[in-house]
Amino acid sequence: MRITNVSLDGDLDRFGGRALVVKTDRGTFNTPHRVLTSQEFQYKANLPFEPPLNNKISEVVAQFSRANWDKFMTTNGSFNSRLGTIEFFSDKMAYTLKRFYPQIPSDVVLDDTAIKQLLELQRMSDLDFITIPNLSSEIRDFEKIVTSFAEEVLSERREPLIYLDMELEPPVFRERFMTLLSHSDVDTDQIHTVGLIYRPIRENVLNYRLLWENRESSVFLQMSYIPREFTTVAASTMHLLQKWGIDSFSIRAGNYVSPKNSGREPLPKPDVLRRTKRFDPEPLTFRRFQTWIDRGDMLDCSCPICKDKTVDDFISIYDSESERYPGQIFNAANRLHEYYCSSDEFETSRDYIRTGELLEYFKTKEGLRKSDVEAPPSLGAWIE
Ligand SMILES: [Zn+2]
Fold this sequence. Notes:
Layout: E1 3-8, E2 20-24, E3 27-30, E4 33-34, E5 36-37, H1 38-46, E6 57-63, H2 66-74, H3 76-92, E7 97-103, H4 112-123, E8 129-132, H5 142-155, E9 159-165, H6 170-182, E10 193-197, H7 205-213, E11 220-226, E12 229-230, E13 235-236, H8 237-241, E14 248-251, H9 259-262, H10 269-275, E15 277-280, E16 285-288, H11 289-295, H12 311-318, H13 328-354, H14 358-364, H15 366-371, H16 377-380
Parallel strand pairs: 4-14, 5-6, 6-7, 8-9, 9-10, 10-11, 11-14
Antiparallel strand pairs: 1-2, 2-3, 12-13, 15-16
This protein binds zinc ion (ZN).
């Protein structure tokens, strides 16, 4: 796949946010946009029926613990089985444009050998983007490395996706981001997209601000590793992030931790169900399923998971004994409900962005309004 054109759609205003039209030789898509991850795709297999998961872009997430990272680097079998997983998902999600995101522990140092191994893994599959992970700050010849990488990937008719960690020191982040943008012009025409690894906004605001300052650029910004909830007010992090001019968002993959391993007492099944978090698209926040019961709220959702169901229907349909851990299917159903509602919500905010009214949209969403107290004062103040 090749990206043939990236252009702004509609107005840019001071508040932030942007809408793009991205043209590729395999079709056109619009942003802001929620990406389908391989973990979300897996949830579908847990359900009693298989709802369609339409999307233009997908992300195959490879989760590594410290131990299986070491195994990946030292055994043939681990490489082979990781490749098998990528092939499995890229086959299932063949109708999407596929990118790869390795979720690697922070204490792993990616040296040349590790990067070579990750690149070979992707080359052997039919991914549309080839990812180069964040390079450590010590690397001085960034421009040389990324341009020769981009040239190679483009010659294979795929798109280079170079990741930058939002936690890089601001001068390093600036230098690298501006270098990548400088290779997006018509003369060089190498970089059409940049990958970003989520880190908290309040600790890395200078890097976020740089994205905002450059939101006129015709480079498609794809952010990965986004936590579901924004700390204090349980708002959806990715919806909050859109105002910085980031274009696509994918959620961080999580693992089930059994009570045995966490040192907690296992909860009875009904408690597990009631405590499961559910996405509320009205304020764009998460709250426990129990609150729907306590307040007598209707599900009031037409997504394929909830359509025509009451709270009681939802519990009885998605509660099952045949699961690997208590609440597995119930959790999958709530995650997919979130996926559908959040994807639709980006379509709504896109209309606001195109007419320069993202601020109005933020005002209507309680979760975004409250979270923004934590945003930089110079921008956040405009919300109140
Ligand atoms: Zn729903």
